[in-house]
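QA checklist item 7 of 12: single-chain prediction sanity check.
[x] sequence parsed
[x] length recorded as 257
[x] structure emitted
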Amino acid sequence: MMSNKVEICGVNTSELPVLSNKKMRELLKRIQKGDLAAREEMVQGNLRLVLSVIQRFNNRGEYVDDLFQVGCIGLIKAIDNFDLSQNVKFSTYAVPMIIGEIRRYLRDNNPIRVSRSLRDIAYKALQVRDSLVNKNSKEPTINEIAEELKMPQEEVVYALDAIQDPISLFEPIYHDGGDPIFVMDQISDDKSEDGIWLEGVSIHEAMKKLNERERLILSYRFFEGKTQMEVAEEIGISQAQVSRLEKAALKHMRRHV
């Protein structure tokens, strides 16, 4: 019988052990007393956790081996810093640590170069953000983060924007069971195919064939340059509804042009 053997960094993933929560707590107690063998066993027993996390990043074009090694660094940091006095599962604490380590690696290796000083400001802002969330149990505003850092709000916004990963215009951002809404649906573009078409000589006659809501949506979208989210807020319906009505209205108008 063949086993599903997959090797990452020389590790046979099909043979990785699985530790119970009770066993992990026993190992963590030994680790805090300086037991290196227990630390090694704890690392080996949680490599499957690292594997599950790096699957979220498999579309970034990075080598799996590199992501795995970086994820292991996050795992080791989680093991060394875990507080046994807190009634929290180790995996609950470790996963954000592993994700954070991988995200730092991806940011530092981003082909769009960002200065070290700008990255430092962004990382400090993220640390302050996490601290304020833990303190106040709510998401802080940019202004609150800027006040903690004693920096202008614009500088914090610029730094945070600089470290964001670029995404595809075809990245789906919402799906309600019908047509998905993509990033490109939220970007107004005066040179888009539909925008150019709407400027044709038959526009006014075709618009008369639509109902009041459809005319309003197209007016907001193609004459005022609003995004679908902005239109949804203006007329009090969901973004998904705006997307469907917009597509239906354009299709209907084409039949009359």
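[x] summary fact logged: The chain is about 60% helix and 5% strand.
[ ] second reviewer sign-off
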